[in-house]
Design brief:
Largest sheet: 3 strands, antiparallel
Distance between the termini: 70 Å
Helix content: 40-55%
Shape: elongated
Length: about 130
Amino acid sequence: MDLMERLNRKLSGWANFYQYTDYTATVFSRVDRTVCWKFGHWLARKCRRGFPSLMREHVRAPEPGRATTWVLKGQNSRGWYGEQALRRLATSRKGQFRWRTLEGNPYLIRDEHRTFRESRYADVAFAFSNA
């Protein structure tokens, strides 16, 4: 139970950080598959049981309408007794990244409000033409 809690925290942090990357759904599904199989094989070694029998017992949908995953029931090291499911990244939020152009440091307070943008193109073009 403790390992699943730590793994779920890491997976949720990873999903929040990488939600704006390209091909998020593809990467999340690959990570889901890898984590699910690695966790299952670790659990089989720990319990000294066969992998298929563990899958029959512990892989199911945690709630109606949710995808199947590893669901463990037991007590963790802090004394909490209950049922916990391995987090799936495929159901995480996926956002679209949008560039924002800032006109300066947003943390500095400015008194004047600029309504124009300065361009030094003419100066640069003149300097390169006379070089």
